Amino acid sequence: MSYIEISNLSKSYGKIKALNNVNINVDAGELFGLIGPDGAGKSTLIRIVTTLLLPDSGYVNVLGYNTREDYKKIRGEIGYMPAVFSLYSDLTVQENLDFFAGVFGATVAENYNLIRGVYHMLEPFKNRPAGKLSGGMKQKLALSCALIHRPKVLILDEPTTGVDAVSRRELWELLYDIKHQGITIFVSTAYMDEAKQCDRVALIQKGRVLGVNSPHGFAQMFPHKLYDVYADGIWSFLDKIRALDTCKSAYMFGSNLHYVSTDDAETTETLTNKLHQIGLSGDVDIKQINAGIEDYFIRQLTENAELS
Ligand code: ADP
Ligand 1 atom closest to Cα of 36? Predict the structure, then answer.
């Protein structure tokens, strides 16, 4: 059964089409990611799914309830962690938890098992006002508060934006634990590398869904030969590399360069020769590699940007 059914959904703000005929189904038990750059429409979609905003057309059902008519039922069954910190800064960690549990008629003790993984990191600060926590700790408290009534579906809007690398990793580990406790998760992010952590992903840009697939499924759809190139100072040759006759695209990937070739007959030798010809000297380390989900996303986002 689909726990979240998003059908032909559109939403505009004046002339800005924030969502353009979006269709997504999230199945029970999935950890589903919504991935897209800033301004793609992620928050708008999440605010509609969480019943905080009405669409112009199309509909969303959550757990079989319609967001327009049955919003009260949905609000009782979902946990929501918005992008901006939305807890009571003057209340302590413990008071915030008690408050959110109380709103839903639950108690912290009842659902302690569910939040134990998150809460044990917060416990030393339980008497500290929420506003005085670090960014990572604020996220963990927000997550605890979103879970405290044991929702069936947990919805998170860019929980890792602006969070340090360690807290990002910790947050994804917590999401795994929560999923394994039987909670369906719908999470948005602008970080492409986080797509790998999801069961399935929808790639969104400029209000359009460019594809829905598993990370592996996306990576397998990459249609060209791809090379990973390492050479000292290679970034300064980027323009010349992009002008090569077989270059479909070339972009930095960490300290290496990914070269997408239009030529099925390309080999590491032909590419090495071309790079030498444009003046890249010294050791050039080239390997043909299988594309990852990020390579597929970069390709789709670039092509979609060129089309519109
Ligand atoms: P994301 O969460 O992916 O960054 P948003 O849903 O916030 O995307 O925004 C999608 C588009 O809608 C952007 O162009 C944004 O500027 C615009 N937008 C979002 N909220 C509003 C609003 N309240 N009024 C006008 N435009 C908005």
Answer: 3
